[in-house]
Structure formats: C-alpha cells, structure tokens
Request: fold
Amino acid sequence: MNWADIALRLLVRRRDRDTISGDLLEEYREDVLPTKGAMGARLWYMRQVASFVSPVTWGLLLGIAFGTFQLLSTAVEPLADDTPRAMLGLLGTLLMFWIAIGVAAGRPTRRFRDAIVAGVLAGVVTMAVILVTSIVRVNVFLDEIQHRDDWVNLVARFEASGLQSLRSYANWEYVRGIPFGLALGALVGGLCGTVAGVINGISRPHHLLRTRH
Reply:
C-alpha cells in the first residue's frame, strides 16, 4: 500500500498529510482489513484515495483519455464512421464514470448536493476536453474524414453556404456547437450526480476521517 499512501500525500495539502494518512491507515488496519480481507481492503483503500481527486481533475483525465482515443482511432481508421452504436458505448462509459465520481464526492459528506455538483463539474470538463480534441481531429484529419458517410450532411451544408474553405466552415460548425456540448455535459453530469446521491443515500455509511482539500 506504499504507492497508494504516496499518491494520497500528493493529493492533499501538506499540513493535512500526516493526519489524513494516519487516520486512513488506522481504519484500514483495524476495521477494514479484518472484515473485508486483503483484496477487499486494498480496493477500499484505493477508493478512499481516489475520492481525494477533485471532480474537475477526474473530468480532465476522462476528457484526455476519450479525446486521445478518438484521435488515435481516427489515425488508424480515418474513414470509419462515428456510428450510433459506438457513440452509445462512449456515452454509457462516461455515464458510469460520472456516477462513480458523484458517489466518491458525495459519500464522505453524505450531502446530496455534493454528488450533484461533482457530476456537473465532471460532465462539463469532460465534454470541454472532448470538444477541443474533436476540433483538433477536424484540422489534422480533414482531408480524410470529409469523405466519411457521417460527414455527408456537414459537407452538404458547406456546399450550400457558398464559402470557399471547408476547413473554416467545419471549425465554425464545431465551435458553434461548444455551448450545446457544455450544456449537455452539465445536464447529463447533473443527472449522474443525482443517481450518485441516491446511491449514497441508500448505501451503508462508511466512517472516514478526512479533510477536504
């Protein structure tokens, strides 16, 4: 568990490191390990450490992960469409992560509001990063992806616009969609936070002494 304790110390304020680390290790050894066993106790400890990561940071990490995957998959198969099935899979995965972030943020305080706020923050930040990487993808792979079936409508709108540059038009379309994307992230993230608050409300409270950073 040394690596997990090191990670914990990096996540909290310097003045709180010894207190929080000591309280967590004491509960791990005296309460959790005897009841959950070695594997269950390790998972419990990792969940506690993860709960110290802010929803904004989790959202940033998720956005980077999904955005990088989007860029790499386009580099490998630039003509592969963003199919409804693939998009639903992406959304389903994000929903599970946003719910988990809400659970982690709301469980220590047992406040419903904290879970909702965490979901909203994670949703907005995740979507912001994904929207940025989508614009990057347009500019890097435009020559290839303009021939994809899922670009037919955008190309048709460009041809009807009378503009000369498909790149400029595509960037304008994606930038114009940013407010909607952020609003969608806030809405869906808030719903995930609501689900997380319900989960925390019906689950058994866990004793944990900690100071929010």
User: Anything to note?
Assistant: The chain has two domains: 1-50, 54-202. The chain has eight helices and no strands. The longest helix spans residues 17-50. The chain has a mean pLDDT of 85.
